[in-house]
Design a protein that fits this description.
two-stranded antiparallel sheet, EC 4.2.2.-, Lysozyme, mainly alpha, 267 residues
Length: 267
């Protein structure tokens, strides 16, 4: 009997080892991308991704430009003053004030609903895309899928890749939708998983479109509120809402710059 139990145990070990071997591994080059996609498609399907999303996944290509950008984020290592200079903080502040003066009721309505001041939303909008001036030139689904495959931060990006595929299912984006190098979408550069989870149809056309300004601003405000924004509280370093800005971007200089610019926009 002990001998039989040993055989069963060995058999189970072989089965588990074979199953692990079948799972495609992450990679740091394009070599294993197609095999990994096949495995990821099974994961996506289990997560609720439908036919259109799976077709978009099958059509993705390894994005070398995304990997290059991910390895070369030098600006976040600059001093605060240099970071703000390079990012054009003075221009963002001036344009932010003009935009607020042009559409005060719009931003007041967002603050009334979500508690997030106009300055914060406008600072993020200016920082991310120059107020919509450039929203990216990289196919979103390919970019985010490449990052989910890449070993550097695979676990972080996998949920966002699933989110992107679900957005395709919804008709919110397609395989051809362009965004930033890391797969971010729209006016304020939302990662797809966050766009899927926090998206708001502020324009009332029945769909969430982050390339639509109203939807993008409302979605940004909704994200910050859901992450713990406290209406009426401060957002400078040491104040309650500064930690919520950290939820938007993990780089300290980015957080500090947003808080400073936002205060100047809000006046």
């Amino acid at each position: 009997m002990p001998f039989l139990k040993k055989l069963v145990a060995i058999g189970c070990t072989i089965c588990l080892t074979s199953g692990a071997a079948m799972a495609a591994k992450c990679g740091n080059t394009s070599a294993g991308f197609e095999a990994w996609k096949t495995d990821f498609a099974r994961q996506a399907q289990k997560a609720g991704v439908g036919k259109r999303g799976l077709q978009a996944l099958a059509a993705t290509r390894y994005s070398s430009t995304t990997i290059s950008a991910d390895r070369n984020q030098k600006s976040f290592r600059y001093s605060l003053s240099k970071f703000m200079q390079i990012r054009g903080s003075a221009t963002i502040e001036a344009q932010g004030r003009k935009r607020l003066a042009k559409s005060p009721k719009f931003y007041q309505s967002l603050e009334k609903r979500y508690g997030v001041p106009a300055g914060v939303l406008l600072a993020i909008h200016g920082m991310e895309t120059g107020f919509g001036g450039f929203m990216g030139d990289t196919p979103v689904v390919s970019a985010i899928t490449t990052l989910a495959y890449d070993c550097r931060r695979s676990d972080f990006f996998k949920p966002h890749a699933i989110g992107a595929l679900k957005l395709v299912d919804q008709g919110t984006i397609s395989s051809n939708t362009l965004g930033a190098k890391h797969g971010e979408l729209g006016h304020t550069q939302f990662l797809p998983g966050n766009a899927y989870k926090y998206g708001v149809d502020a324009s009332g056309d029945g769909r969430v479109d982050l390339y639509n300004l109203a939807d993008a601003m409302a979605t940004t405000a909704n994200f910050l509120r859901k992450k713990g924004w406290k209406p009426g509280k401060g957002y400078q370093e040491g104040q309650p809402n500064f930690r919520v800005i950290k939820e938007w971007n993990a780089a300290t200089v980015y957080q500090q710059a947003i808080a400073i610019m936002a205060a100047k926009i809000d006046g």
